[in-house]
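Here's what a typical entry looks like (Glutamine amidotransferase domain-containing protein):
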Amino acid sequence: MVVEQQKKNKKRFALFLATCDSEFVKKAYGGYFNVFVSAFGEEGEQWDLFRVVDGDFPDEKDLDSYDGFIISGSPHDAFADADWIVKLCSLCQKLDEMEKKVLGICFGHQIITRVKGGKIGRARQGPDMGLRTITIARDTEKLGLYFGDEVPASLAIVKCHQDEVLELPDSATVLASSEVCQVEMFSIGDHLLCIQGHPEYNKEILFEIVDRVLNMKLMEQEFADKAKSTMESAEPDKDLWQKLCKNFLKGQI
C-alpha cells in the first residue's frame, strides 16, 4: 500500500522527441533523452520517452497520468504535413484542452503556435545558429512566478533554427524577443510555455550540429565559423533556464 502511494505521488513527465539521436549524442550522453532529463529532471521523478519522429506516441488514455510534457527541437518543419507531425498536432490539441503543462522547444515552440492558430514559416532574417542574448519582457507578471523575486533583463541561449513564429496565436503573451527574432518566448495561459532557443543545449552539442550540417554542405564555412565564434568566450545562462523551465513544469513557485 505504501509503495502504491509513493508511485501515485511521484511526478511523471514525458519527452516527445522529434529528432533522431546523432552518433555523437548517443556516445556522449546516451541520447537526447538523457540530455533533457539531466537539464530538467529531478530525483524521484519518472520520465518517459516517446520518439514521435518515429511514430511512437502515448495512448490517449494515459495522458492524464502525466504532470507535464516537453516537445523537443527537430530538423523537420513544424508546418509540414507528415503523418507524425499531424498526429503530434492533434495530441497537442488534446493536451491544451486538458490544460496539461507543455514546454515547447524550437520545433515544439512552433508546433504549439500552429496548434493554437498562429503562423510559422522560414525565419525573416534567415537561419540562426549560435549563442544569442534575448531580451526579457518587463511588463509581464508571469515570469516573476517562474524566476522568483528577480527577473533577469536578458538571457543567453543557444539558437539553432531556420523557421520562426511569424504571427502569434491570439491568446499568446510574448515573454522575450531579440533583434533577429520577434518571438523568442511566449506563453498561453498557465499551461503552455514556448521557447525558440535550446535551453538544454551546451557548447559541444552546438558545435557537433554545426560540423554535421557543414559536412552535409547545408551551410557555408563562414556561417559555421560565426556560429562557433559566439561561444568562444561566453556560455548560455544554463542555471536560469533550468530554473524557469523546472518551475513552469512543476509549479514550484
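The longest strand covers residues 128-136.

More examples are in the samples folder.
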